[in-house]
Amino acid sequence: MFNKILIANRGEIALRILRACRTMGVGAVVAYSEADRDSLAAQLADEAICIGPADARRSYLSAPAIISAAIVTGCDAIHPGYGFLSEDPGFAEVVRAHGLTFIGPPAEVLERFASKEATRRLLGDHGLPTIPGSGMLRDEAHALEEAERIGYPVLLKPSAGGGGKGMRLVRNPRELEAGFKVSGSEAKAGFGDGSLYLEKYLEDNRHVEVQVAIDRFGNAIHMGERDCSVQRRHQKLIEETPSPALTDAARWELADRAVKAVAEAGYENLGTLEFLVDAKGDAYFIEINCRVQVEHPITEMVTGIDMLALQIRIAAGEPLGMTQADVQARGHAIEFRILAEDPAKDFRPQAGQVGAFIAPGGPGVRMDSHLYPGYEVPNDYDSLLGKLSIWAPTRSEAIARADAALRELLVDGVTTNIELHRAILANQVFIDGKVTTNLLDRVGSAPFVAASNR
Ligand code: ADP
78 by DSSP, 3-state: which? Predict the structure, then answer.
C-alpha cells in the first residue's frame, strides 16, 4: 500500500479522497491552488501544499507543479480525482517516470481508450452495440458525405471530448456546414484536439452507465448501473440506481456484457461505460470514463463498497479481493448535483460567499460537499458545490427522503439549483421514471422553476 498520496484536485472530490486515505491509514497531502487556499480539504488535511495560481493551467493542470509537490512532500502516489489530468495518458506516464504511482489506469491503458471514436470501434469489436456513426472526420466534405450515409439528424462529437462541450446537433447539410468549424475549434480550445466524428442522433434516449472495476491480474467485476437521464445541456444533474428504464434482468445483462467487453479489451482500474438506451430499450455504447465518476456515491450506497478505497488498492497492485458474486445491490439511491448556477438565468454559473450552510441528515442521507459558512465560491472552476445522495429501500421512499433532505439543505449567499431539484422530483415524468436526456433542454427549466416557486 502507499505511504502517502498527493491529492491533485479540489472541491468535494479532494475531500472524498482525503476521507478514503484516512480510513485506509494512508497519509495524504492536499495540493491546492491560490484560489483554494481556504478550502475545506486544505483545512482538514494534515498536510497541504500550494501548487500555483487560480488559473488551472498553472496549478491543477500543471504536471511539473503537481509532480514537484508530490516529491517535496514525500508522496509515493498521486490521485487526480476527476476532470483535470485524471484521464491524461501523458500525465500518467510522467508520474510513472518520476517513480510515483498514478491512481487510475496505467498510461498505456489511458492511451488505448483516449479517443472516443477509436474506443467505439474497439468495444464494438468486443461485442458492444454502438450507435451508427462515422470514423474520424477528415474535413467538411467528408462530414457531409458521412452524414448523408448515416442519415440526419446527426450529432457532431469531439473525439477527445467531455462534459458535453463542442457537441452539436445538426439536422441538415446546412447546419453541418455551419457547425463543423465551430465544433472543431471548440474541441481544439477545450481539449487541445479538434478531431470530430459523427453519431446518429437518438431522439428520445436515456443515459445508463455501467460501473466496472478491474485489477491488474484481470479480475473484473461490475457494480451495476446508474441512470443519468436528468441532464441539462448534455450534462448530468440527477443520477439514480437502479435505472427505472430497464428491467432487473436487462440491467444485469447489460452490466455483464459491458464488463466482459472492456476486460477483454485490456482495461484496468475503475471505469464507467456509458450507454444510451433507445425507446425500444436497446442500449448502445457511447463512451468510457477512465476515472472515478462524480456520481459514484449512489453505487456505494446500494453496494456498500468504498469505491475510492477499491480504486486506491487496485492502483497499489492489490487484487480486487472480491468476485461478482460478492457484489449485491440493495435498495434505491439518487444523487443530486448541487450547483452554483441559476436555472432561471439559463443555468449561468454563480460565485459569491456562502452565508449559512446547513447539510441535511437522517437515515440514508449523505452529503459530499466542501462548503462551510463563510466559504468563498471561486469562479475559476466548475460550479459543483456538493452532492446530496439519498438511499432508501424503494424508489418511492427514496424520492420522499430526497424531498425532505432538499428542504433541509440550505446554502445562503449563492444562487443554487436546489429548488429546481425539488421541482423535478415533483414532476410526473420523473415520478414515473420516464425522463429522457433531452427533457430539460426541450421544455427549459422555466416550468420547473415556476412550479417550485408556488
Ligand atoms: P461527453 O463526453 O461530452 O459527456 P457523451 O458522449 O458522454 O459526451 O454524451 C453526453 C450526453 O450527450 C449523453 O448523455 C446524451 O444526453 C447526449 N448524447 C450523446 N450522444 C448522443 C447521440 N448519439 N444521440 C443523442 N444524444 C446523445
Answer: strand
Ligand 1 binding pocket, CB closer than 6 Å: 131, 155, 161-164, 167, 199-202, 205, 207, 231, 234, 274, 276, 286-287, 437
Calculate the alpha carbon distances from 19 to 117, 125, 148, 308, 396 in Å. 36, 39, 51, 9, 30
Calculate mean pLDDT across residues 417-433: 95
Question: According to the model, what pLDDT value does residue 442 have?
Answer: 77
Q: Is the pLDDT of residue 295 over 90?
A: yes
Strand pairing report for 269-277 and 206-214? antiparallel
Q: Does 357 score more than 60 pLDDT? A: yes
Q: What mean pLDDT value characterizes the chain?
A: 95
Fold of 132-200: Dna Ligase; domain 1 (3.30.1490)
CATH code of domain 206-452? 3.30.470.20
Domain boundaries, the chain: 4-103, 132-200, 206-452
The CA-to-CA distance between both ends of the chain, in Å, stands at 54
Cis peptide before 153 (omega within 30 of 0): yes
Using the predicted structure, report yes or no on whether residue 154 has a pLDDT greater than 60: yes
Per-residue pLDDT at 286 exceeds 90: yes
Domain 4-103, architecture per CATH:
3-Layer(aba) Sandwich (3.40)
pLDDT digits (tens, 9 = 90+) for 68-81: 999 999 999 999 99
pLDDT tens digits, one per residue of 99-148: 999 999 999 999 999 999 999 999 999 999 999 999 999 999 999 999 99
Mutate to test the pocket of ligand 1, among 82, 87, 150, 167 (most ligand atoms within 8 A of CB): 167
CATH topology agreement for domains 4-103 and 132-200: no
Q: Which three cell numbers stand for residue 45?
A: 488535511
Angle at 130 between CA 129 and CA 134, to 5 degrees: 145
- The residue ranges of DSSP E strands in 53-172, in sequence order, are 77-79, 101-102, 154-158, 168-170
